[in-house]
Every structure is written in structure tokens, then in C-alpha cells.
Amino acid sequence: MDGVDVVVNFARHPDDMHLPHDPARSVDIRLARHVAAAGAHYIMLSSRKVYAADAQWQASEDAGLSGLDTYGRNKLATEVALRQMLPADRLTILRLGNVIGHEHMPGRRSFMGLILNTLADTGEIVFDMSPFVSRDFVTAEHFAAQLGRVVELGLTGTYNLSSGTGVMCGELALAVIRGYGRGQLRVIDPRQADAFRLDVSRLTGKTGLRQTADDILRYCHDLGKALG
Questions:
Q1: Does the model's pTM come out above 0.70?
Q2: Going by C-beta distance under 8 Å and a sequence separation of 6 or more, which residues neighbour residue 81?
């Protein structure tokens, strides 16, 4: 790692989604050992799922932590481990909302990946939840811009990184359909499922970068249009 000043890790082991925390499996922990020895700065991409179930709406960085699910608990355990391995002035933890982008690719199981793939393949988007569930989405481009500013400014500590706005999932899906020019949204189970929004004021106060709900909906329209 000679000459490396900052390391940002995007990788994770697929078993982190469903198996209990194992330090030997954690890509972050294994990589952070090398970063610590090299004296470099480490940026961990964590998740809003580290917050407790009752803290998911408008969660600030100081909200309760217990992990929403197995993935959230694994991310939380990794955050704790990294704080023990690296000094505070060489560690940044970014807790992400739902990052969306150009995800029309075979096998992509993310929220936007499923929307784009099923619309292109079947002409419809199928929800097993209420279309009125509101979630905090952020575009891949805005995420990248925020990350770049974090590196440029040398920010340390813990920050939520998302848009900080709530967009109804049905509204987002319909924006994609309008861009595509055809298709339908079909709801097979109107359950209320996993609404969340992050308080991003700590980060936006540092970077000055913000994204609105209208920005996100225009972006989704363009994603649909790009399907052809």
C-alpha cells in the first residue's frame, strides 16, 4: 500500500446478508488491517440498517443501534471492530440509504435492478408491498459526488449518506414506467414494509451537496427511457 492515502471499500462477502458476523469473513476487517499498518485513511460503506427498527424514520447518526436484520447487525459489528483497529482521525463510516442507478443487468436483485429487469422482461413491475411505502433513495451519481467530497475534505467520523427525502416506492416505479413509455405496476400484497428516511444534515452541512425528491423522480424517468 505504498503511496496510498485513502482506501474506500465497496466489497462485501455475500454470506454477510444471511449469516452471523464472522471477522474472518469480513472484507472490511481484513482490508482495514492492511490500511492500519500502512497509516492510510479508511472509508467504510455501512448501511442505514445498523439503526434499530424503531429508529428507521429520520434516523440521525446518534439514533439507536441494534441492527434491523442480519446484514445490519453484521455492518454494526464491523463498525465497532474498525473503531478498535483505526484511530478516529483515519476512519470514516458512511451509512447509506438505498442507492439506485443503471441496474438493468441479468441477476441484479437490488430494488432498482428488479424494477428495471422485470419491466423490460415482462412489461410490468410487481410489488409485494404497498406502493405508498416511503423510502430514502439516492442516485448513484449523487452518492459518488458526496463520496468524492468526503475524500476531498478529509472528513472523519460517521455520516448518513442518502438524499434525506422520502419518495413513495409506487411513485418511483411509475416514473420509470413513464420513461419507458409502457407497462404497469401490479401490487400483489399491500403490506407496509420497511419505510425509512435518514437525517443527512450532518453530511450536507459539510459538503453542501443536496438531492431532492424531484431530482430522484426525474432520474428514474430517465432510467426507464434508457430501457428503450
A1: yes
A2: 23, 26, 28, 29, 32
Return the amino acid letter for 202: R
Query: Domain count of the chain?
Result: 2
Task: Give domain status of residue 153, yes or no.
Answer: no
Shared-domain flag, residues 103 and 176: yes
* CATH number of the domain to which 50 belongs: 3.40.50.720
Distance in angstroms (rounded) separating the CA atoms of residues 60 and 44: 18
Q: Decide: 95 and 136 in contact? Cβ < 8 Å.
A: no
Tell me, yes or no, whether 220 and 124 share the same domain. yes
Mark whether 49 and 76 lie in a shared domain.
yes
- Beta-bridged to residue 51, according to DSSP, are 65
pLDDT by 10s per residue, the chain, length 228: 788 999 999 999 999 999 999 999 999 999 999 999 999 999 999 999 999 999 999 999 999 999 999 999 999 999 999 999 999 999 999 999 999 999 999 889 999 999 999 999 999 999 999 999 999 999 999 999 999 999 999 999 999 999 999 999 999 999 999 999 999 999 999 999 999 999 999 999 999 999 999 999 999 999 999 998
